[in-house]
Structures are given as C-alpha cells and as structure tokens.
Amino acid sequence: MTTKHEQILQYIESLEVGTKISVRQIARDMGVSEGTAYRAIKDAEARGLVSTIERVGTVRIEKKQKENIEKLTFAEVVNIVEGHVLGGREGLHKTLNKFVIGAMKLEAMMRYVEPGSLLIVGNRDQAHKLALEHGAAVLITGGFDASDEVKRLADEYALPLISSSYDTFTVASLINRAIFDRLIKKEIVLVEDILVPRHATVVLHPNDTVGRWKALQMETGHSRYPVVDEHDRVVGIVTTKDVIGHEPDAPIERVMTKQPLTASPNMSVAAAAHLMVWEGIELLPVVDGQRRLLGVVSRQDVLKALQYMQKQPQVGETFADLITTRFTENRVDGQVVLQGEVTPQMTNHFGMMATGVLTQVIEEAARRVLRQYKKGEFVCENLSVYFLKPIQIDSAIDVHPRVLEVSRKFGKVDVEVYREGQLVAKAVLTAQLFER
Hints:
16 helices, CBS-domain, five-stranded mixed β-sheet, alpha+beta, Tscrpt_reg_HTH_GntR, six-stranded antiparallel β-sheet, DNA-binding, Arc Repressor Mutant, subunit A, Udp-n-acetylmuramoylalanyl-d-glutamate--2,6- Diaminopimelate Ligase, Chain: A, domain 1, Thioesterase
C-alpha cells in the first residue's frame, strides 16, 4: 500500500510540464495536511520534478536526463541571474541550448538566433520581437522592462521573457559559470548510475529462514542479501558470517545485522568506496528518504566505476586540477619530488600561498609517492600539519614526500616543503588505499 507521500509524488509526476503548483493546492487536491504537501513538494524538487522560481512559484518541469546535465532550463536561468519573469511563464521548463549576446546590428544578430536559444540584450524592443518570432527566449539586461506587445508575444509563443538588473557581461559570465560547474558534475559518477536496480535485486524478508538464505545462495551464487519489510524498507542485511552456526529453520530476523549502513542514490561513488573500505562491507543497499530499497551496489561495482572514471576525458577543471597541474614530478637522489612555483592564483590577500592550496599540494605529493607501492585509489584519512611558514608569491618550492609505513589498506607519508633550501612546512598524512 502506497503512503500519502508517495501518492503526492505520483500526482505531481502526472501533471503536465509547466503546471504551477502550491502547498495549499496540493493539500486540497490530495486531502492531506499542508505539512505533508510541503514535504512532498520539497522531495519532488530534489528529484528534479519541480522548480521553485522567485515571484513565479513552483512549476512542474521536465526531469533532465543525465546526458543533458550540462544544459539549463530557463527556470534555472531566472534564479542564476536573479531575474524576474515579464512573460512566457509557460515556457520556463524548456531547456536552453545556447545563448547569444545581442551586441551587433539587428540583421547580423538574427543569424545566430535559433529555436531554443536565449538572446541576451538590452532595451532593444525590435530585437526582443524578432528573437521571440525566431523561437528564442529573451533576457533583458540592465533591469529594463519590455513593451506590452513583446510581453504578449512571449505569452503567445510560451517563450520566457526575463529581466535582470545585471549588465550583459555579468549575466553571460553567470550562465557560463553554471554550465561549467555542471560539466564538472557530469564527471562525478553517482551511486544511482551504477546500482543494481530493485527489480533485479534478490531480497529476504524477516520471516524467511536460514534455509531460504542457503537456497538463494545455491541459486544465485551470492551470499549477501538485504532484508526488507512489507513496505520494502530496508531493516537488515544477511551475510555468510551471520548465518554460520544457525539451524535452517532459524528466522532471518534473529540472525540478520539490523539497521545496516545504506547509501542514497545521489551519493558519489568515491564516497561509497570510502564507506565500504572503512567499514569493511561488501554490499551496500541504496535507499530513498523513507529507507525503501532502490537497489544495491557491491564493492566490485564501485571499484569498476572508479576505474572507468579514471579513463574518461577531462571536461572541466576543478581547483585541485588547476593547482596540481602547476607542479611537475621529478627525481632527486632517486626520490619523488614535486616542484613548482607559487602563482598569483594560489595566494591569499597578503600575497602568501594559501593554506588550502599548500595542503592540496602536500596531498598530491603523498598520492604520487604511494602509487610507487600500491597501484590503486587513494582517500586521505588524516592530515596533520606540524608547522607552516609564510610562502610568498613567485616562490619556487620543492615538496619531498617520504613513505613511513604502507600496508594493504593504509599508508602513512611524511611530507616536507622547502623554499630555497629552507624548510617551510612539514606534515604527516595517513590514507586509505584500495585496488582499482
């Protein structure tokens, strides 16, 4: 039997894209309290079914697919540029394909405007009209209003007409930054991308027996199963060590590990790997906010995904990438040494190397030296900086990592940082290691 929360989510999903919804309306339509309606709407927003826009309200949107994660909806553009909608609200759910800056003559500008694009322009009334007629949305910069005729056209074509107080350069930079951030996020593989879905997951129930577990083991070749109740909520997990020494008629409820660790679908694979290695578990149930089973991931699935990620082309540089690419790996007396220069981007407002940048370089040095011993992944567990002297801009630094201890799962590295032969920082880092 589905809960009221699930019924509301199903109702929201059944609404036509572009429909406006409110807490009061959902509560009235579904016969629930406003608190229940509010929680369901927030859950729907987290799932990408609706979007809340200032001065417009909450709108049913089309759930974006993974392959289009770098694209934005016009509703998201409104939030990014802190704008307000002058017309064409019914088209806010549509996806932005590209944006065009209207900084040229009208005839030349229209060569670049096409359906699904966004024209960013000032108070040029004729440009607004032509863009809408070409199937493009319009973003008016400088906080200007639009004519009544342009607003009518926007409503007629269901193309958003947005006004922002920012100038054209700032608006374009904000949108570009948002697209770039999404390119980086596209690289981050989530648990939901690799899980074995619920329909393909073999489960046990609390009233099953150890004999049932043994039969499943013979049938599937697996030894770990999530245990779910009548509402499909995860209440336990059963592995070989749980059933050893118990009679075949012993109930699963008595032998299972209760309240097992679980993952959410939007947890990164790297975080799941860290959890599984740290806790020494082989199977992780994936659940929703109500602890209902969505699927499972095994340690093997996680490590395969991490290996796959290492082979993917870079599509967006993170701060860590920007820092570490400034340093080169060299050999001094047979030992690994990272060498580089403190650039302006690495400094704080005093012109000294920022502490966060230095710790990133220390971590990278430890990673490089540990890879001589273990070909696998690296997760920093603890970083202790014993002392740190100011390192000014344009300084050339040498980073010397030295392995103190390494085992199958852990490594410990001493790192010293030198500037012109003088010791300026010293740290000890411990890390978890696991094979790809």
